[in-house]
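Mods, move this if it's the wrong board.
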Amino acid sequence: MSVILKDFFYLHLVSRIEKQRLGVDGHHTSMVHDATTVQDHFQTLVSIDDIRKRAVMDIANKNLAAIKKNCEEVVRKYYKKYGHFKSMLANFAKIPEEHWKEYLNEIQLIELNRRDDEIEGMETEFTNQTTDYEQEIEYTEGESFSYIVTGGARIARGLTLEGLTITCFSRRAVEPNYDTMLQMARWCGYRPGYEDLVRILTTKQIRDDYGLIFEAEANMRMQLNQLKDDSDPVSEIIWIKMSEGLSVSGRLPMKNFREVINGFSNFLAEYTWTHYPSEFYGSAPYKGFDAYRRRLEPRLTLAPPPKGESGYRVHMNFDVNSLAKFMNAYLNSFPSPPAVCSQRDVLRSAFDQLRSFKQWNVAIATSGKGTSYAHPVTGKNYQTVVRTPDNNKIKQVHSGFETAARIDLKANELRTNPLLIVYLADPTIKYGDGTRCFPGANEPVVLLGIVSPVAKGKRDEFIRGYRVHAVGLPSWLS
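Not the wrong board. Structure tokens:
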């Protein structure tokens, strides 16, 4: 930690100097968030103060070169891609000795979250006087001060620090929940004029935590954006992606609510439908059809549905391991993390929850008046189906929902195997205004539906991911 604190201190110093060179007015603040106890907070400031005192001593001993060297090292380490990198380095040679003294002596060390009455009741002996460091920070209007701040609960609850530029953040919550970790990161304070100077020193674990939290939040926002104006917020299910080692929330209220929230972590809808994701718009290549052609089609032995329905061909009792190879290839065709893609994540979660079923049924839609597609390499022709998304909103991708959801079953038969429904949608179709339904796609668009085994009368045991206003409730589940 001593190396990190040294880097942190000199980053505070060089960013303060650079702000002045750029003419940025206002207070300059850096923060250390590395511990929970009062004693640790105090010791952190003692360590930082020791670094500052050594720098002051170097000046007294006419060893200004040592300070400049430390400044140059952190600039080369942390600001290599900074637009004013060379000017920043060159500026150190122009600063006279008395100004270096001012920069060092003006730094105020603040220990927030400590109170005199709390300290009096503590059975702790400090090596320094407990009054050495201020316990409050006061931002005087019209003046400019240099602060280094540490503390516990107060800076972990979204406290705004003016002019915050350098942050050393190594404290991970004991029980890392999404909301707790987000609240600990709500430092704010950044202002125009010095965005490129902001640096955050943290651990790989914490960096990965926030990457996962960002993905979960962005995923949830995408789902909210896909709701219609007349959507019912009570009946709509918004899936919250969970990650190993992180919880969605801390304390949850009543038992029934806890059960629903916990269900999100093992998302399993009765019906899971895909739509053409916006991640494929523009330059992103669509590779879903290649996954279908290579991984699924060669293994299918298709036959008419059990009831003789038209419009579909089915393969009964398809091996889940072979299906997994197709699903992996299909899902890998989507943009990879850290790109957020709700379709990829929802499908993967639904399939993973149903992998315990060793046999699946697969249905391929064959009806429709889509444009015939000839593969440029094999020359094989594919008859596509016309499927028009509702402006890319989550919605069933087919008509005749009730027929499709039971295409592999006999009359009154209960489902015992999951069903994968596959549609090869015509990539050339357009909306009424002339815009393409599947922009960026030149091959048939593979749209999937997954129907989970749900015994009649047991549907309330599942988290219902279908949209009642869009597809209706099939009679066999009523």
